[in-house]
Structures are given as C-alpha cells and as structure tokens.
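Allow me, if you will, to draw on your knowledge of protein folds for a short while. I have a record of one protein: its chain in single-letter code and its fold written as discrete structure tokens. I should value your view on which stretches of the chain appear to form regular backbone elements. Thank you for your consideration; the sequence and its tokens are set out here:
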Amino acid sequence: MACLIKRSWGWQGIVRVKSHPSIIKSFQKHGDAKRWAIETELKLRRENAGIAKIKYPLFRDAALRYINEVSIDKKCYRIERNIINTILQETFAEYPINRVTPSIIGKFRDKFKDEVKGNTLNRKLDVISTMFTTWRKEWGFPVDNPVLSIRRPKNSEPRDRRFTDQEINLLLRGNRTTEQMRTIINLALETGMRPSEMLRIHPEHIKGQTLFIPVAKSRPRTIPLTPTAQRILKSCTLPFNVGLDRLGKRFRRLCKHYGIKDAHLYDIRHQSLTNFMLNKKLDVGSTMLIAGHKDPRMLLRVYNNLKVADVAKKLNA
C-alpha cells in the first residue's frame, strides 16, 4: 500500500508492497508525492505479478554477446561460433528473444530437416537451447526455452565409411598429395588421433613411446605410439602449420581429385581405431585408451563397421 505523511517541510511518500523493502521519498508538493506513490506501488505490484515490462534484447544481440562472453572460453569455440553465425542468417535473429517461440524453432527445424543430417540439425538446436538456458539462468531474462517444446529430429546412424586399400594408396602416394598431408594421413592411421589433436602436437609432447595430448575433446590424455608413429613424429616439423578448416578443405579437394567419394578427414580416425581392433587384435579397453573414450558403448556404437565378414574371418582363423 501507499501512504502520504504531512511533514513540516512538505510531504513524505511511503510505499509498502509484499516481497519488496519499503520505499520512502520526500516531496515539497502533495501532488508530486501522490503521483510518485501511485506509480511506484503499481510498478512493484506488476513485478510481483510477473508482468513488469522488460526490455528483451534481439536474438542477434544476445547471441553475439554469448559468443563474446561464454562461447569464447569453450574448447569448441570456433565450431559453436560458426553454428551461431549460420543461425543468425535466419529471420528470427531480428526478433526479441521472448518472441522466439517453439513454433518459430519448429519451422527452423522443418526448413533444414531434408537438407542436412539429423546430427547436424540437432547440433544447431543444441546451441540455440544452450543460449536460451544461459539467457534465463545467468543473465536473468525470464524466457522459456523454445527448443524444449519441439520434436527433435532423429540422429543419423553412425558413419560406416572404411577406406579401401586402393583409396589409402591414392591418398598416400598420389601425385597431388603434399608431403604435409601425407604425414598427417599417415599419423592419423597410426594413432587414431582426431585432426584437431594432431594439429596441436609440439615436440615436447613426445615422450619416447608415448605422446601427451594436452588439449583433447574431453580431457588431456597420453597415448602409446607405434614404431611407425614414432618415426613419423621424429621426421616431421611440429607443430603442423595449418588450421583445421583449411586442412579439411584440402582433404576434400584431394578426395575429389582422386575420385574418392563420401570421405571425411575424420573417417581416417575411424579407420585407424577399427584397424587396432581387427588387425592388431586390441581389446575394447585398450582401444578406448587410444581413442580417449570414457564409455565403451561409444566405441562400439561409433566404430560399428566391424563387418560380418571380418567377424567370420576371425572365427574361422
């Protein structure tokens, strides 16, 4: 409630509303005090009712702030930034964040569901969801997360791409393969490392028969090295002077030139870990150590290209 008290020097306005501390202000004129008291009480009651007028930022502005304040400290900063920049091309990027509804995000999902794989689309939805969670929990904007109210696309089946001996031979010995690319492909085959991990190798990380990986996808780890991997690392210049994006583009161009279809640089890691299990007879636990996986189900799910013919060959060996 609001009340006015006459003082010798003028008027004192006092506003008391539940869940708020008392507010007191002095005025010389009765009319000014009355107007202030009415407006202040109304404002506090609106806040209690959750209908106070809040100035919501545009999705674009909030997303750019998220990139600069939150995403920049993540290991996946470059990937997340690129995803957000793609999302900012959508019309709803110009809406206030409280106007980005489940219906709008559902249309965004439907727009791309036939153009990209489920995993790719889910990564975009994950980023949107993470931003809304940050805006609500850390930045204080009372907005609902629209991603939580829509149907998610199904994730695609894990890639089942294994290179043939002829494809590997072309990649390693073809006339368009540079010395650096040849070294990286060979190293990936011998270590099962992620491309991003290989590009961070420094000479001081090599300790005899082991290699320390200080910045991995989940946590730092040390992996064993084959004799071939040791020779590769001793003979090459470290670190590799190339960025991850550029390396991926070079690999795709190389595959296109050699007529190798549906091949990603990351597939070489799959190939390597599968070879460890099939050819070098490593068990799941040993292969997990090399791969850096915490859950054996991840290894069995992702590297599910242990073909029936491979298993049959082992049974009949």
Summary: The chain has a mean pLDDT of 87. The longest strand covers residues 2-7. Strands lie at 2-7, 10-15, 23-27, 206-207, 210-213, 221-224. The chain has three domains: 2-48, 59-149, 165-315.
